[in-house]
């Protein structure tokens, strides 16, 4: 079954990337967020992303930003999701917020609509439990920036059906992406390993074993990583890193996931990384 209409909830960095990717692959997109200001910023960001992308992907007849934007409906009203065949949710990684969103869309969307949670930490089984369509709830952990990353970590919840997995794989293929399917567990595969690595790299900085530049250079030069763990933390957002490691700590009750004090201090100081202009490195913020 080819998916035509996709709802994207949350117009942050990931939601903007998804809406752009979906529109560029011919889908009709409904992008929903809580304020017009956020949606206006999302519109401008998509324009900027498309122009930036065109500099690296030379084509004879590039699609104009306006053509791509014409496939996206921006709205603060969840009601417009009623005709969506597939929903990708990207709201803040806070349970009380996700809880409200899923209870709301469960009453609006068609019973056949699949709900895909783009989460890095929250249990897919738990999300499914607050809906009346547990077999149609699945996890899709996209990587940033979405249009440029070809692989998605897909998470099967306890009740996720085989049909839902098949449809999700088809949907991702339409977006030009492959996927790896894993079972539901805190942090799944990618974040269970990545957050532990980043947290330990911050401990190295706190213990004055090495500078941020030295830590990242070792991973890039010795292991061939494109980005070091602290550069990756700045890209993801240190607030998101802290939340994810706290979820792992709470879920496993294992001291190896205890959040580094320096990480907590930086988040308290508003040093979130790229999105705030400063984290382990300094950035220009437009």
TrEMBL record:
**In this protein, which residues make up the domain named 3-hydroxyacyl-CoA dehydrogenase C-terminal?**
187-283
Record-marked site positions (Important for catalytic activity): 141
In which domain of life is the source organism classified?
A: Bacteria
Pathway where it operates: Lipid metabolism; butanoate metabolism
**Can you give the residue ranges of the 3-hydroxyacyl-CoA dehydrogenase NAD binding domain?**
6-184
User: At which positions is NAD(+) bound?
Assistant: 10-15, 33, 93, 98, 120, 144, 275
Q: Which GO biological-process labels does this protein carry?
A: fatty acid metabolic process
Keyword list, A-Z: NAD, Oxidoreductase
Give the matching InterPro entries.
3-OHacyl-CoA_DH, 3-OHacyl-CoA_DH_NAD-bd, 3HC_DH_C, 6-PGluconate_DH-like_C_sf, 6PGD_dom2, NAD(P)-bd_dom_sf
Homology family: Belongs to the 3-hydroxyacyl-CoA dehydrogenase family.
**Entry protein name:** NAD-binding protein
Q: Which organism is it from?
A: Atlanticothrix silvestris CENA357
